[in-house]
Design the sequence.
């Protein structure tokens, strides 16, 4: 069976492939680097704040995977705008499947016996075992993948529903409201569920660490979603021009 070349060359098909590629790439990268929890203060050259709260000592720590997650929800909103709720659902299910596949392959890689010379050349002066580090880092991702796939699918479907609800209430106007509003609702669920399952249920974090880190992650997504609102309008402008050009 031969696929009509006009379908593959259509602007909407090319747009969907590009958006799906951006969505998928950022989602997979976020899952892989999400095992690292970094200090925002130390990264910026400051000492940890050590704020005393009812949750205990509070520092601004969050998963590294949260850094590029804004690109996921921005792309999701654009897909929602041009391909509808079904487009977001299709992309979300496919991405969840690809992420699961990636982690199956990665887990299999951690089971492979390391070459002796690879261990030796990376041992250094402190007798560092690179194979143990490799396995430790990537197997942490198994807890994250369980929590993340659960939260990812739920939050994406919730995002699509809220997006279309707001769009209907505003008669297709106020792009900023439906894009930002849907993100703020869905990412509240995503931030707490991912970290809760990955590091509390499958890890050894305390409830205080879970709440503080999840809240830090959500606050980052909250303010980033607001700051990136102009990007949504710019993307709409470019895409509209692209789709209408030489039509």
Sequence:
């Amino acid at each position: 069976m031969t696929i009509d070349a006009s379908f593959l060359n259509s602007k909407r098909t090319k747009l969907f492939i590009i958006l799906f590629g951006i969505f998928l790439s950022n989602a997979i990268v976020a899952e892989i680097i999400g095992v690292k929890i970094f200090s925002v203060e130390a990264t910026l050259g400051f000492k940890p704040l050590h704020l005393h709260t009812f949750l205990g000592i509070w520092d601004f720590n969050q998963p590294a995977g949260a850094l590029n997650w804004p690109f996921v929800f921005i792309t999701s909103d654009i897909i929602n705008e041009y391909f509808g709720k079904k487009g977001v659902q299709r992309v979300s299910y496919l991405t969840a499947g690809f992420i699961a596949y990636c982690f199956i392959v990665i887990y299999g890689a951690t089971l492979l016996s390391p070459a002796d010379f690879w261990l030796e050349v990376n041992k250094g002066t402190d007798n560092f075992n690179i194979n143990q580090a490799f396995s430790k880092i990537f197997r942490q991702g198994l807890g994250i993948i369980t929590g993340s796939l659960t939260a990812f699918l739920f939050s994406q479907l919730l995002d699509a529903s809220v997006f279309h609800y707001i769009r209907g209430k505003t008669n297709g106007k106020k792009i900023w409201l439906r894009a930002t509003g849907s993100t703020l609702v869905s990412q509240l669920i995503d931030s707490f569920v991912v970290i809760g399952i990955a590091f509390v249920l499958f890890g050894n974090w305390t409830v205080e660490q879970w709440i503080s880190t999840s809240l830090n992650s959500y606050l980052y997504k909250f303010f980033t979603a607001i700051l990136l609102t102009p990007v949504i309008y710019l993307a709409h402008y470019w895409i509209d021009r692209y789709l209408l050009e030489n039509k």
Notes: The chain has one domain: 21-244.
